[in-house]
Write a structure and sequence with these properties.
five-stranded parallel beta sheet; Rossmann fold; seven-stranded parallel beta sheet; 2 domains
Length: 395
Amino acid sequence: MRKKLLILANLWPESKTTAAGKHLLALIQSFKKAEYHVHFSCSMNKTYLGDSLNDDAITTHKIELNNDSFDQLLLSIQPDIVLFDRFISEEQYGWRVYKNLPNCYTLLNTEDLHSLRLARANKKEEKWVETDAFKREIASFLRVDKVLIVSEEEIIKLNYFLPSLASKLIYTPLVIDSKQIDYNLKRKPWSFVFFGSGKHPGNQATVKSIATIWPDILNIQPESTLSIIGAYYPDSLISEVKKLKQVTFMGWIENLEAELLLHEFLISPTPFGAGLKGKVLESINNGVLCLCSSQASEGIDTKHHSQFMHLNSEEAFLQSITILSESKDLIQKERSIQSELLKPFISFSNDSWIAELLNDTIQNESNIIKQIMRHSTINSSENLGKYLTLKTNKN
């Protein structure tokens, strides 16, 4: 009998706007390849840029929070594996899964460490493990069987603070499809690009940083041009960007790769974030040289091979542009260095860990902790859930 995977999500995947959407879609394709029938359930409707998920091997379901119909859905599907997309989904729906399907194998897909991203956004990374978000996220880790982590840097951080979690973590980075790039392709000289969804505060903050240093870049290279690509940016930020010289705000575009082939440089002074930056991997894969902060290259250039992927101040960005303007050979050399960084992401496959999931033997101690956490969650959440369900039904 064909195995079944049920994905519980709060957001519909948008592989054309976010790396997270692309990663979730890749996971779905990997489970399909392993001959799972995938049931995708979401509390939000499909967005206008959302993936269609129209496939014989995929069934979609609209779910509602605090509604007993979700219990009925679980019992009708009887999935072999439940995958929670982000820990918020596990908090909201987990207790119903554990109560109705106590023996079902559970996965948590993180995309990035939400609590780490928040701590960095608040400039309090040193207090990360003290935050409420960290405690909630780790509690969710303890309730599931395995946790999917996209960045090796995040695995290192988790193992440092909580080495007992090591057996729960599965490394599942963004997977890149290798492509042949013609490096003799005539790109517009000194053409910069930045792209990413405006829903993410880190991307908005990056655009603001670029806007701050752009006049100084023009002083060094007056012919420089900048394209900013992405959906969902606020009108106020778009207006600010459009006031800059030689800058074009393009919004969302259908064919991002074709546009990247026209540009020489990605500029990404990302001030905070977590996980892996798909924009960096996609840029390298399209022959675009990345000028970015250590935050943007985290989990990608882990050993600091590139001198242009750890630019952590305005001065560092401006100095790098000065250096590159004085040596065109350096551009080709750095492209070669950065392309080597792609190899682990091109060669990675989800096949092996998916094949082993249902054969996995959970360590006794880990299983005891999981059962304790679930018991506490069911007891504390069920009464609240019933109250909210009644309240929802009355309204």
